[in-house]
């Protein structure tokens, strides 16, 4: 039976607690409502979240509503995905990409 994972929406105010203080690696998608590639990426990230439930959390941060975190990590385009491990960013990917590519990059960064 496959686990289901919900991709949480987080805010600037919850970023430290939800991402930087997490014991589990966290993949943060920085997105915007008006961004077509962000919509393309959504089902891919849902699959990754479900497949890696328990070993990786996947969260979303709306850049338009939460500009501070985007500024802190110098996010210049959406979607941007940041992978955090132990409170530190270990990977940054800009733009939508196939699931196989995301899986490969995540595995490499967490190895």
From TrEMBL:
Coiled coil: none annotated. InterPro entries: Thioredoxin, Thioredoxin-like_sf, Thioredoxin_CS, Thioredoxin_domain. One of its GO terms (cellular component) is cytosol. GO terms for biological process: cell redox homeostasis. It comes from the Bacteria. Disulfide bonds join 35-38. Residues 1-111 form the Thioredoxin domain. It holds the Pfam family Thioredoxin. Signal peptide: none annotated. One of its GO terms (molecular function) is protein-disulfide reductase activity. Keywords: Disulfide bond, Electron transport, Redox-active center, Transport. Belongs to the thioredoxin family. PANTHER family: GEO12009P1. This is Thioredoxin. It comes from Nocardioides turkmenicus.
């Amino acid at each position: 039976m496959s686990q289901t994972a919900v991709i949480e929406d987080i805010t600037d105010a919850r970023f430290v607690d939800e991402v930087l203080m997490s014991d589990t690696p966290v993949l943060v998608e920085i997105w915007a409502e008006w961004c077509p590639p962000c919509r393309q990426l959504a089902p891919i990230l849902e699959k990754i979240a479900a497949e890696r439930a328990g070993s990786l959390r996947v969260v979303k941060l709306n850049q338009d509503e939460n500009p501070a975190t985007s500024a802190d990590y110098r996010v210049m385009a959406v979607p941007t995905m940041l992978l955090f491990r132990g409170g530190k960013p270990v990977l940054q990917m800009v733009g939508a990409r196939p699931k196989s590519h995301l899986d490969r990059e995540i595995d490499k960064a967490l190895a």
